[in-house]
Amino acid sequence: MFVDDNPEIAEQFNVMSIPNMVFFKDGQAVDRQIGAVPQAALAKKFDGVLS
Q: What is the pLDDT of residue 32?
């Protein structure tokens, strides 16, 4: 998603800075990662959401 192309969605999920990843589980936002992080940290985040 590009924030400039979808400002209403960015507002809905309170996106104030980029990069900003919102993790969803069963249709609900359950976590978020703001800012650039190493691949290992992102993988750990994914694992947490999937468990």
A: 94
